[in-house]
Amino acid sequence: MTFMSIMNSFPLYILVIAGLLFVFALCLVTLKQARQRALELGLSKEEIMGVIKSSALFSIVPSLSVVVGLFSLQAVLGVPWSWYRLSVIGSVSYELIAADMAAIGAGYDSLAALVEVNDPNVAGAVMLAMSLGIIGGVVGCLLLGKSIQTGMASYRAKSGAWGALVMSCFVMALMAVFVPARSIFTGTIATLTLITSALITMAHRWIIKKYKVKWLSNFVMADALILGMVSAVFWNYLIG
């Protein structure tokens, strides 16, 4: 048995489907309670249905980036686990960072090196690291989210321009976490791909601002992912 055979195994498919069905059931219960509460507040059934339809419609387009991420993630982590991670809570950037850290902790240079060796002994550690890592963020938001948000908003309102600068620095720090230096400078192709994706994102933003096409903002991430992967193939062909 190999790493990829475990990550694509039938028992894992069954467990993932069971977990997703449980989450789907929770969504249905929440939807029912929200609808009941909306009726109590005086909203008509037609208004509620309109909100449901519009929400469903505007959820489809942004999910394209998740689908693209699924295709890229399943190449190194298999189909069921990638499907589960991106369906419940998580993102492509986080999942790859967590899995890569688990692989490095097991003695490999990277997640790609682990997949190449196909070591089955690290499969459990990779899945556990990805799962436990994201729980900290969820628990932290539940316990500290409100106080952090109100505190930052209050500080920004009192400090004016300085508060805005602090908030901008905080956002840049988050970006630095998800784009670590070792991922940028691992090779020329990786660096060129990152630059290409950044330029694609900037071009989208310019088009949105210049021509007032706000609907295009829903496609920024999906287009950056797709065209970034295409550019990686191009750069590899050109200089690889």
TrEMBL record:
**Signal peptide (from-to):** none
Q: What is this protein called?
A: DUF5058 family protein
- Domain of life per record: Bacteria
Query: What keywords is this UniProt entry annotated with?
Result: Membrane, Transmembrane, Transmembrane helix
Which InterPro entries does the entry mention? DUF5058
* Positions of transmembrane segments: 12-31, 51-77, 122-145, 157-178, 184-203, 215-238
